[in-house]
Known about the structure:
Number of helices: 15
Radius of gyration: 21 Å
Helix content: 25-40%
Strand content: 25-35%
Number of strands: 18
Structural class: alpha+beta
Amino acid sequence: MSAVAKPATETEAAEIVRAAAASETTLSIEGGGTKQELGGPIVADQTISSANLSGIINYDPAEMVFTAFAGTPLGDIETELAKHNQRLAFEPIDYRPLLAANGSPTIGAVAAINNSGPRRFVSGAARDSLLGVRFINGRGDIVKNGGRVMKNVTGLDLVKLMAGSWGTLGFMTEVTFKVLPVPETEATLLLRGLDDEQATNAMAHAMATSAEVSGAAHLPETVAAQVLDGQAATAFRLEGFADSVASRIKRLTAVFSAPGLETVTGDRSAGLWKQIRDAGFFAGKPSIVWRISMQPSEAHKFVMALRMNAAIDASYDWQGGLVWLSIEDGNPHDDLIRAELSRHGGGHAMLVRAGSDIRALVPVFQPQPAGLAGLSERIGKAFDPHGVFNTGRMVI
């Protein structure tokens, strides 16, 4: 196991990175250590951890903005926000159940992987709430970009560039996020017994109404059995003031006037969406897991094509725009998945869970077209000319 450096200050972290660049030493970036099995296997001489760069620097509930050190546990952030009835709108996934990981996810990692959950298709991803970053590039320079307010960006928007860079461009030390109030209540309308195509049509129909759906997901029968019962479930979440939610549930119920409708509220609704967010129904299975983003209207066709050639389970989120796949035969079927994805409108296939031997051979992230891959390489060399950070995580 490589040595772990835990700088207590940004200046100390910069010195570690400068020394690594000078000695051609490679660094693996770590926060809470909960996502080390995400991405390709990292080849590194040393680990640099943000664990000691922790704490909320500034939080003004009236402005609905906070700044925190990158190593601050996400749970600490959410606890403090909850005291003021606020939350992160993008509903970050907790990958620990899927990856059987311990530790505490950090707010810096949320930004670094552009984390987002079921509310993504209406509230955006982490990058859409990220206002500012401080980070150390591969030369050991301290860089600041963005601020505490939404404004037009002049020059390079490094905030958006760092979000989703997976620690390959720099070591983040501070992040600034906007937050939103927690709705007074939530309720989930369940349609039972629909097949994947019927559920796709129902989700599209619901999103076209004025019901203001903040979550639209479908759990086929084998998946629903893990969190509800054996009957397939198509779920629509509504949030807001209690009277408004009740009225909108009634309106949506009228749209789907049919047997098999059920409304769940409170902890039961919240627990269901946590399972959907974290793909918790695949957590206990010894399976390979993929996360696919694609056109919602094509998702059920894509899944059906895969089922003709491999034994898979699937679930749908983001109105069908996000597909979770679980494959139990030990074969990642990457060529099949990416070929069918291309045939069904394209998208992005990410290998979320597999052994390091598979992740060393299979592109974990969707391969980029030549032009975009060349641009990504040039950006990487500009930020990290010595190849210090997270070698192997995004590109084999």
